[in-house]
Amino acid sequence: MSLLSSFCSKKRRLSLVSWEASLVPALSWLLLIPCLLVVNSNQCLADEGMFPVSELGSLDLQAKGLKLTSDEVFNTDAERTCLVDGICKVNGCTGAFVSNKALIITNHHCAYRAIQAASTTENDYLKNGFIPSKPGEEIPAPGYTVRVTESFKDVSEQVLAAVTAEMDFAQRSKAIERRIKEIETQAESDNAGKRAEVAEMFAGKTYVLFIYTYLKDVRLVFAPPSSVGKFGGDVDNWEWPRHTGDFSFMRAYVAPDGSSASYSPENVPYQPKKFLQVSAAGANEGDFVMLLGYPGRTARHKTASFLEFEQNVRLPFVVDYFGQQIETMQAAGANDRALAIKLLSRIARLANVEKRSRGQLKGLAGANIAANRRAKEKELQDFIDAAPELKARYGQTLAKIDMAYAEAAKTAEAEANVRNLLLASQLMSFAFTVYDGAVERQKPELERESAYMTRNYDQTVARLKAGHRDLELVTDQQLLQQLLERMGEAQRASLGLPAPGQLGPLYKASQLSSAATLDAYLAMSVEQLQAVEDPFMRLIVKLYPEFQRLRELGKQRSGKFDKLYGDLVTVKQLFQKLTFVPDANATLRLTHGTVRGYSPADAIWMRPATTLAGVIAKTTGKDPFETPAEVVELFQKKDFGRYAHPELKDVPVAILYDTDTTGGNSGSPILNAQGQLVGVNFDRAFEATINDFAWNTNYSRSIGVDVRYVLWITDTVYKANFLIGEMGL
């Protein structure tokens, strides 16, 4: 049985192509093309790899320290449970069930949007935490969904049957997109109440249909204050040593009959097939650990031209532009807590990307990754040129990929400016979603953009309204003005955009800040929306042809890169004689390693654990190094209870380990050799931001919160001991 055939077994499923991505076009200059992780099929190097769970039997994890059989981690028998059944996806993060009542542990930063949405100046859950005094005191988390992998099946033949040799790149992309929608729609019809998604595993070559249990009633159960859950803020983000209690608890609910349902007071907790046992012993240096989760995307085997595009074009733009936005919003909320609450979630998302991008730029330059990859491509090209039949078919593949990125680079900044109109201004974004939805929903179901298909539209509107609640017009105008200045007069004129100084009257005249107006616009037809006088709707109607052009361009690029990368995969397999495993693509994966430190620079050694004493030493009393008074008091009393480390005589806070992770692994449970939860993954060291492009055993380190700190904060500090009992502790 081939690697891919065994991967496409019977039971579980992995999420990849998520319709939510279509809601943020401002962040997508070029469609991200899935790439490949190359693994020697005869000698799997388990130190590196985000492995599909179906491949566990080939990894010999028992030799690395795992005390469970591979079947206990994952199996395809629907009658047997395994650890994978206890893993879930929480929006774009990972979570783990830790009770039979669907109590989920994930990161504080993953629950941050829910905490922020529920916060007011009177009930400031971001500042004070959401600390229930008894079971049942929970807050709805609108816009959150929980997914549990159920099954997966190879549908490559069905998808690619839609493609013909005569199609151009855009037609190819559209044909694949339509066939995927057909497969997903049919699968959801055949699996009532489930969610279906088709994931592209190898670019332009292989596709897998995944079926999920899809839970729409998610509630916040417990969240520590941000001074615990976000201790160190952006200063410490992507850094080690770390002293952040980045955890929260949520819960998933279903209708009384067990079916997936939106929020209702009558709903009951979902009953997972499996929940993870929490071990209060935590993890110590040298221990085997593994993570199960939904890592986002890596680019370990994209071409040198892709890396050069990242290094020279996209990443510098992100660092510069996001940095400007962050600075503006931080200044706006500095002396206004109500405004700050509205902006904090947005600031946190941008700050995380901005600092990661800085780390990636540093790593790309320092490690000469693009140059090294270019040298390997020269070897591949020599191999192709040496065989006439290969040269005839693949001789121009690398050159065509180079040309495609060079062509994209010429217009990348101008295109990004247009797309970022929807990131800079929420009013622009609201108007676009309303108008785009009206245009798309007049089309037949399968011809619509995914966000506006019937199966997705309610969630699209829910996310739109959740963002609308945080609208603040003064800051919105500032951000849009800055982007218009960045565009320059020539680009503004070509698009018919106002000058930066002309925005005041537009904001004053707009009614889009009204929830009632938004509802009214959502009910209108295209013709009705074209007739409204709101200046932002009129701007979007004027700009809409440009957005359509960019969307079409994206499909053309997607089709081109899918075809070229598909050819590249084929010839690389011939050259390297290796088995290829799909690179990370937001599907369920396992990675394993050891709790251990590293040396980031000459004469410096970072040990792999931090403690509560380190939190106190960092505490200044000012953001982001504030610590709750009750935490300081208990530290001074040395009231650590059973959560103290036996050797350190202190509560361990964070741990460092050499597993292979990326975005999406936030919230992944850190499991010990017995499969027990000993921590929650939340970050990487700064040197490991380059993981997305290249992994290295010397510096690639992931960071998690030690479960002993989670339990100490929950139990000893905030007395939510009913949660400790629910987890069986």
CATH C-level label of the largest domain: Mainly Beta
* CATH architecture level-2 label of the largest domain: Beta Barrel
Determine the fraction of residues in helical runs and give it as a percent range. 40-55%
Please indicate the percent range of residues in DSSP E strands (runs of 2 or more): 5-15%
Please state the CA-atom Rg, rounded to the nearest Å: 25 Å
Major sheet characteristics? 10 strands, antiparallel
> What's the average pLDDT?
91
Structural class comes to: alpha+beta
CATH T-level fold name of the largest domain: Thrombin, subunit H
- Name the poorly predicted regions: 1-46
Number of helices: 27
What sort of overall outline do the alpha carbons produce when their principal axes are compared? globular
Q: What is the number of E strands?
A: 20
Quaternary organization: single chain
Task: Note the gap between the termini.
Answer: 43 Å
Tally of distinct domains: 2
What attributes characterize this protein structure?
alpha+beta, ten-stranded antiparallel beta sheet, 2 domains, globular, Thrombin, subunit H, 729 residues, eight-stranded antiparallel beta sheet, disordered N terminus, 20 strands
